[in-house]
Design goal:
The protein is about 10% helix and about 35% strand. The chain has about 350 residues and is mostly beta strands. The chain folds into 3 domains: about 1-90, no CATH class; about 135-240, no CATH class; about 260-350, FlgT, C-terminal domain (Thrombin, subunit H), CATH 2.40.10. A hairpin with a 2-residue loop joins strand 2 (about 75-80) and strand 3 (about 85-90).
């Protein structure tokens, strides 16, 4: 009888349904899903997994597919079990296929040049990139002296005070050798750690891009190529960054213990929700990197214990997740991927 029980328990442990009980698979998950236009990898992972950021743990790279980490509309995501463990695998659809033509293999086929019009399909992003596009490409967090010591717009031609695309102006300052294209910046928010009072960085708001036309000592003539906001006399100039803009993210928990807060929310709001960006008071020095996932917690209320006759802070409650998409030395930008309640400045951040 004892042997029968042992055999029964062993067989149950090998069943896929039991494997799902470890918590990685979401109850009621599908066995397959066809990727659609507008999907994100995070949305798809949320269908299969209880914690979407853990998708790399069970993603099975198919060596027969070129770029198996890129997923296109029409691709099929399948849940399979290998040695009793769940794995997500990819079956490529027509949109993501690479077709190689070899006319020499068919000598009787006459090939003529022609024009074919068809939609260009891109791989789906890990997160909604349109929500963070401006913060991915523009804006910086710098030291105070960076903007204070940067060249500035001195005057405009025809006595202009505000400049638009194509306008020429004069700028003055100490110019780094070799740089011909500059971003136009204006001081923005000063980020101060609410816990320590330390200044974490100074926001440099990007206004546009300008190029040097002529130089005469420390005064140069420049043309404004493009703008995001109006450019004025006194705005600062910094050489354009040689920085790779990340568009593919691999979410993962931080390797070190992180305990931080939401420092600021972007936009004209005091509280934000899913797919909104926030600034946080932890960065590379705290072990964060692009793709780091953090849990968002609401501070517990302070209540009076009528028995002990004292004030007691209730435990913090987890309400959502964010992922770091741009990281600086002492702070970072994160995108809220899910939340049950609006996120405010001061909400807590911890390892997921």
């Amino acid at each position: 009888m004892r042997k029968i029980l042992i055999a029964l328990v062993t067989s149950l442990l090998l069943l896929p349904g039991i494997v799902a009980a470890d918590g990685i698979l979401k109850p009621g998950h599908p066995e397959r899903y066809i990727v659609k236009q507008g999907d994100t990898l995070w949305d798809i992972s949320s269908m299969f997994l209880s914690e979407a950021w853990r998708w790399p743990e069970i993603w099975q790279v198919n060596p027969n597919i070129a770029n198996p980490h890129l997923i296109y509309p029409g691709d099929e995501i399948r849940l399979r079990y290998v040695n009793g463990q769940p794995q997500l695998s990819l079956d490529r659809g027509d949109e993501g296929r690479t077709v190689k033509l070899n006319p020499a293999a068919s000598p009787h086929v006459k090939v003529k040049p022609s024009i074919r019009t068809e939609p260009l399909t891109s791989a789906i992003p890990a997160i909604p990139l349109d929500a963070i596009a401006s913060l991915l490409k523009g804006g910086r967090v710098v030291q105070q002296e960076t903007l204070e010591n940067a060249p500035h717009i001195l005057a405009g031609k025809s006595e202009r005070l505000i400049f638009g695309p194509g306008d020429e102006f004069y700028a003055r300052g100490d110019w780094p050798a070799g740089a011909l294209v500059y971003g136009v910046f204006r001081p923005g928010e000063v980020y101060v750690d609410p816990e320590t009072g330390e200044v974490l960085g100074y926001e440099a708001q990007e206004l546009g891009v300008a190029a040097i036309l002529r130089s005469d000592g420390d005064v140069v003539t420049m043309r404004l190529n493009s703008i995001k906001k109006e450019v004025r006399i006194g705005d600062r100039l910094l050489p354009t960054e040689e920085r790779r803009v990340e568009s593919i993210f691999y979410p993962a928990a931080p390797a070190t213990s992180v305990d931080g807060v939401v420092l600021a929310v972007f936009g004209q709001a005091t509280m934000v929700g899913k797919n909104h960006a926030v600034a946080i008071n932890r960065g590379m020095t705290s072990g964060l990197s692009v793709g780091s996932v953090l849990a968002i917690y609401k501070k517990g209320a302070t209540v009076r214990d009528t028995v002990a006759r004292e004030q007691v802070r209730l435990p913090a409650e987890r309400v959502g997740l964010l992922m770091v998409f741009r990281v600086f030395d002492k702070m970072a930008y994160g995108l809220i991927l899910q939340t049950k309640e609006p996120v405010r400045v001061g909400d807590l951040l911890r390892n997921p």
